[in-house]
Amino acid sequence: MRPASELFPSFPSPDDKLHDHCGVFAVHGHPEAARLTYLGLYALQHRGQESAGLAISTGEELICHKGMGYVDQVLTQKLIKTLPGRSAIGHTRYSTAGDTAFINAQPLVVSCQKGQIALAHNGNLVNSAALRRELESRGDIFQTTGDSEVILHHFARAKHSGAPEALAEALDKVVGAYSLVVLLKDSVIGVRDPHGFRPLSLGQLDGAYVLASESCAFDLIHATFLRDVEPGEMVILNDRGVISLRFAPPNRLAQCIFEHVYFARPDSLVFGRSVHASREQLGRLLAREHPVQADLVVPVPDSGVPAAIGFAEESGIPFKIGLIRNHYVGRTFIEPSQAIRDFGVKLKLNPVRSLLEGRRIVLVDDSIVRGTTGRKIV
Amino acid sequence: MRPASELFPSFPSPDDKLHDHCGVFAVHGHPEAARLTYLGLYALQHRGQESAGLAISTGEELICHKGMGYVDQVLTQKLIKTLPGRSAIGHTRYSTAGDTAFINAQPLVVSCQKGQIALAHNGNLVNSAALRRELESRGDIFQTTGDSEVILHHFARAKHSGAPEALAEALDKVVGAYSLVVLLKDSVIGVRDPHGFRPLSLGQLDGAYVLASESCAFDLIHATFLRDVEPGEMVILNDRGVISLRFAPPNRLAQCIFEHVYFARPDSLVFGRSVHASREQLGRLLAREHPVQADLVVPVPDSGVPAAIGFAEESGIPFKIGLIRNHYVGRTFIEPSQAIRDFGVKLKLNPVRSLLEGRRIVLVDDSIVRGTTGRKIV
Amino acid sequence: MRPASELFPSFPSPDDKLHDHCGVFAVHGHPEAARLTYLGLYALQHRGQESAGLAISTGEELICHKGMGYVDQVLTQKLIKTLPGRSAIGHTRYSTAGDTAFINAQPLVVSCQKGQIALAHNGNLVNSAALRRELESRGDIFQTTGDSEVILHHFARAKHSGAPEALAEALDKVVGAYSLVVLLKDSVIGVRDPHGFRPLSLGQLDGAYVLASESCAFDLIHATFLRDVEPGEMVILNDRGVISLRFAPPNRLAQCIFEHVYFARPDSLVFGRSVHASREQLGRLLAREHPVQADLVVPVPDSGVPAAIGFAEESGIPFKIGLIRNHYVGRTFIEPSQAIRDFGVKLKLNPVRSLLEGRRIVLVDDSIVRGTTGRKIV
Amino acid sequence: MRPASELFPSFPSPDDKLHDHCGVFAVHGHPEAARLTYLGLYALQHRGQESAGLAISTGEELICHKGMGYVDQVLTQKLIKTLPGRSAIGHTRYSTAGDTAFINAQPLVVSCQKGQIALAHNGNLVNSAALRRELESRGDIFQTTGDSEVILHHFARAKHSGAPEALAEALDKVVGAYSLVVLLKDSVIGVRDPHGFRPLSLGQLDGAYVLASESCAFDLIHATFLRDVEPGEMVILNDRGVISLRFAPPNRLAQCIFEHVYFARPDSLVFGRSVHASREQLGRLLAREHPVQADLVVPVPDSGVPAAIGFAEESGIPFKIGLIRNHYVGRTFIEPSQAIRDFGVKLKLNPVRSLLEGRRIVLVDDSIVRGTTGRKIV
């Protein structure tokens, strides 16, 4: 068995903003484009709960709806029903603090001399501040505080008139992590940065093509997983099918390990590998590299379960569900004003006392083992 | 190991309304009575999501708030803050259909010659229809269609003037399953029927006493579990402490097995036994009584997990998380209008294809093994 | 011209609860009974904004919906669409403070040995407390704190088995002001107390009959006003038409003058007289009995307008709209925390400075002239 | 008396979009800037109910909140409380159809090489399409479909570095109607176009200065009306007081007559004249120029009242309130499905039958007399 460090080639977080993961989805060529995008975002909800949005093309113009909240709050049934068109892109964004939350919701939609364009971005650019200063010094105005808007400015003033070429020209300026879905009047473009930091997969449904951050979005809509978009590849979905362009040579591969550890759903294939299998394997490696004496292996539900099973299988220590999650934890909660402490955890997780009391526990959270020496609960 | 039939003495469902479980909570003698009741109901939310309500005593009068929906929707922070008093009862009710839903929300609060009384009831009476006809023939009016109101009518016209005695006199008329919490101006009463069909536990918090359907409500508020209320016992919580009365001889014990299998949270003690341990043991028994050849034991999350672990340990077949639950499944969902089928399950559960494909699976749901011969998914 | 004291025979407010006015509506024999009741209550919204509710008969049973808020908040389109039946009653209630607001929302619906009955009541009973004590001493329970519930108890235990006779028997016990609409499985009953304190009118729509507190409810649904229900009269609307019973001899007429002055809409006929004409006439009388020297007559909009016109015509002083009402005053308003005073009035009414400055003003509010000596605004 | 055509010098509607009126408000130098802006917009709610928004300056950066709906829906108490700063601008927008509604909500806030700038605009530019094409051809991107964004692009690339001068340079490019309020980090700018199409007034409150579309906004916050901003004038509010610049020579005056007839509140001063007095005078002129034989002059409430009073006074025909408005008309209404017609008007207005029947009526709506020959109602 290989050490954990060999499982993933490297982990160069572009700017230490680990938290900034998002989900993107796109479809071209399906009469229910808005509905499929809604469903795809629904399946990707775990990648971002702060804001959600989609843009569709009527064939004549782009229409965008976005807002703060969960996918099913922002994109209501009433709204989805009214949205025409055969192509669409969508975005769901992780929770970040700050007043700028709404203006940075995606997709971004602008019009320029090349027509209308909508963009949804998963990742972080490392040189966006410098690019922005440069553009502002030429007289450009910015309506968001995020890093994606610079791509649109460079697209608008690219020398190439064709959209894929103009987009490639714009991407030539930016450095960092980006998986993009782009909507034009008559096509959808998917892009993955040359390092392949963030995932993006291509699928097929009836005659249509779909793009998603994780394959679990394909499962929900009964689409077939075809392949990952390659690092440095641009796929253009239009009425003639899928065209692949290589806009940059693939760079040293630098997939984000946290996709497998934290972000992705275990039923997804990400970077061509089962997330579930990765987590279980990390548990096994942990048990091998840091063997401990304990009575029980207990996961922090739900994300810690696969790694805990791996740890238990490798170590031979029994696996038990020793923490119970409250399924009804809401977002507005009344804090006790006195006499009651320590609610943060209690509300969400409660130990099974009869199981844990007096026993040495290996507690596995995500796939990071927090208490390898057997931190005791209760 | 004993056969499953010996684990629980019997299972005489009073009237086949298995679905009609609720959660009750009560507190006497705490300055944050309303808040603790809110928290207790929150922990019991899994026992009922249709309606929620509480009644508090100011010392002078009872005030009741109830409504359709989840505990945190009905009992808002703003409301809880305004509710005074040192004693309270609460109720959360399982989802049932029908227009009578709201008028049957509990607690019921009435005034009569013995003063005001509030009642919250978990269980079903088998002779309520006959009692109701008899009361109506005497000129009484009924404002609910549920079975709990007959208890209040008999309480109001009981010969005894003391509330505990009058309540005992009323309970002498009714037959069936009932765990009750009752609020009077200056005390709280907890009652469990002579068969002990439904659970009710007594706990302590600072100087106050609390009652709850399951001990997980005590854990959340840091109360100490003292004991179960006994079948046929009435406990009176007032400023002098806890008084125990036996209003009926304990009958042949008839605990509802579904409390352990379905209703209760695994971290609760119910009927003096760990729910988690019961579920795991049921899985073990299953594996013993119905051994099968299979590659993997897979639970339907989350309720099937303990029994699946028991099955796996007993059978030696590896336990795997082969179905992933979508945590963001909401209550309003847009049905696809065409081209997409089979959403009911897909939305909530998605298989880990790489794990399940080509393997023989034992699928464990709740603690009922649905596919013992290895029903294959995918 | 007669003095104001002769315009209305007397004004014996039963218990000084002037504020407790409500609106009632009923219909029998129309396929859109719920919808018409919604519309009728909508037209009567000015008579009560605290709670609203209706009860319909399916022919087999009664179904009731009620809640806190405006008619269109409580009775949503979705709800109204689902309500079957050819007969219905409705109620809208004036804002009163207190925690008992919801439990006193009407219609009240109960079942008893005479079947189901729903009741909506406009008025106040003066002997309800005594009746309630007597009923409680016999073992009855009360679920509301209002005065209407005693009527239902007496109805349930009336010796007569026929509903109209049983209702008459119950009304024989009560003293005070009441205009009632009552719904039974197959009929609607309208009642006005022997003094005729509160209004109740009978109308016709296609083949159906309707009852309403004010005739403006008939206008909205294009029903024809037939006549007032007489003091001491009970009208029974069933499939054979309208039957009139006299359950009590008409007492000394005692119409509530505030119906004309405050409660009713000016476009209604109340007590057989145009509310608008009454208000204008009160303004004329005022000008005659209390002549003043002033430059302008200015109404407090909107209720003061008719009386101000009457005052202006009688006195010859010009009528001007000197106060402007803000149409967008909502119910949630942000109070200024400092530096800004006196918002209560400012928000709703703003003077036309150019008109009022330096002039002597007669300000007419409702039909009570508050500032006859020319109180100056600004 | 002068003919109506002399009352207002001219009425050149820039592009026939009469409907596109909005309300703007601004304040500089007050510790409750956000709250005052909320109140100012509240008083200007009649000028636009589609969307509302405000931007404040913390002194370091601008923060903007906007959304679809009424002022008190978009700008909640909770939000206003959290907004710091001593200067702010706000905007309320008239209802227009279309999917682009939200993206065109104002204020617009952008950052550029001159820092952050927020803009709120009342009016319409006639050359915005041409300016936009020109800017796009240079590589600029547009995020709204409205006409205000071109001002910001020209501001960003103006040669002058000072904000007032850069704004003047940008305004030099645009043609049309505009009253603007602009927020910068440390100042507020108010602008009125050289024709003075739209109103904008300057007021004072404690040491602070305020700008508003109508003086009724000053009344609500107890500010003192100082004067109108002049056509072609720019006023800069900063910590040193008010600075006036003339960025263009005043053009031929072209005030929009519809401000007085439709848009403005009668208690406002607009274009230095009382709106109420204008409406009454229009009624008088009408009576003079088009005398009719009639029994009563009846206004369509509320906007027709002043003109009807003027008509009545001039003609000697009695003024009567013959149509009653329902104050509780909401935005969601259940349409009757059959048997009931003609709701649109009925719901809002009901005639006082006893007054109108058999009489010849002059019906006055806004200040347009629609039925000069005595159209009869009923």
Identify the notable features of this structure and list them briefly.
homotetramer, 378 residues, alpha+beta, Glutamine Phosphoribosylpyrophosphate, subunit 1, domain 1, Rossmann fold, 2 domains, seven-stranded antiparallel β-sheet, six-stranded antiparallel β-sheet, 20 strands, 26% helix, elongated, disordered N terminus, disordered C terminus
Descriptive overview:
The structure is a homotetramer of 378-residue chains. With 378 residues, chain A is α+β, with helices and mostly antiparallel strands. Chain A folds into 2 domains: 11-270, 4-Layer Sandwich (Glutamine Phosphoribosylpyrophosphate, subunit 1, domain 1), CATH 3.60.20.10; 273-371, Rossmann fold. In chain A, 26% of the residues lie in helices and 27% in strands. Chain A has helices at 4-7, 33-43, 71-74, 77-82, 128-137, 149-156, 163-171, 216-220, 257-263, 275-289, 305-315, 343-348, 353-356; strands at residues 22-28, 51-57, 62-68, 87-93, 108-112, 115-122, 179-183, 188-192, 201-205, 208-212, 224-228, 233-238, 241-246, 269-270, 273-274, 296-299, 323-325, 349-351, 361-365, 368-371. The first copy, chain A, has a 7-stranded antiparallel sheet. Chain A has a 6-stranded antiparallel sheet with strand order 5-6-7-8-12-13, with helices on one face. In chain A, strands 16-19-20 form a 3-stranded mixed sheet, covered by helices on one side. In chain A, a hairpin with a 2-residue loop joins strand 5 and strand 6. The longest helix of chain A is centred in the last third of the chain and has 15 residues, at 275-289. The interface between A and B is large, with 67 and 66 residues.
